[in-house]
Design goal:
Layout (H helix, E strand, L loop, with lengths): L7 H11 L11 H11 L7 H8 L53 H10 L2 E6 L5 E5 L8 E4 L4 E3 L12 H8 L11
Antiparallel strand pairs: 1-2, 2-3, 3-4
Helix pairs in contact: 2-3
InterPro entries: Knr4/Smi1-like_dom (IPR018958), Knr4/Smi1-like_sf (IPR037883)
Pfam families: SMI1_KNR4
Protein name: Knr4/Smi1-like domain-containing protein
Length: 186
């Protein structure tokens, strides 16, 4: 996973996965991407950064189930306007956390859950019922995809043991619907 440089192969695979061949008309553009990054104090990881700037910013087709959201969008069932989100603050997790069953090592688990939901990521889209996919944009997990639901959060990628797919945005898109195809390593 290279989060510092988009490869031509990754971008071609992403174009093919979303069926995009419009010469960048569906893209956000570099000026808007840089404005988002400056406003939030982040550098989006590659190849997502180049993808939204040059290829596509949101799609009705997935992944995920209900389509890929635009860079600054949130799912319809988000619950608030998202004004409390802080992409520039580090994403707080490095391992899966099922908060429905375990409060974790946190003095205030509710505040910790709010940080998981709102810090260090952009929301890529939803599979419905508050099952959202996030791309981590700041902190030690930068570049990784996380599945965050109302009961917990888990990282995506072969190194975490839930899938044989490659990590990161390109690996997540390439996996299609095979997001959890490997037995749990836990």
């Amino acid at each position: 996973m290279n989060i510092d440089q988009a490869t031509a192969e990754d971008l071609a695979a992403l174009r093919a996965a979303f069926g995009v061949d419009d010469g960048g008309e569906s893209a956000l553009g570099w000026e808007a991407v840089r404005a988002f990054e400056a406003e939030h104090g982040v550098a989006l990881p590659e190849p997502y950064r180049t993808f939204v700037a040059e290829v596509l910013d949101g799609s009705f087709q997935g992944p995920p189930e209900y389509g890929l959201l635009g860079l600054a969008e949130l799912p319809d069932d988000w619950g608030d306007d998202g004004s409390g989100r802080k992409p520039g603050e580090p994403f707080p997790l490095t391992a899966a956390w099922l908060w429905e069953e375990d409060e974790g090592p946190y003095e205030d688990p509710e505040a910790a859950i709010e940080r998981v939901l709102g810090h260090g990521s952009v929301v890529l889209g939803t599979d419905g019922c508050a099952m959202n996919w996030h791309l981590v944009v700041s902190g030690p997990q930068r570049g990784h995809i996380w599945h965050i639901t109302d009961v917990g959060a888990m990282p995506f990628g072969s190194e975490f043991g839930f899938t044989t797919a490659e990590p990161g945005f390109a690996g997540w898109v390439a996996a299609g619907k095979e997001w959890f195809d490997a037995p749990s390593a836990q």
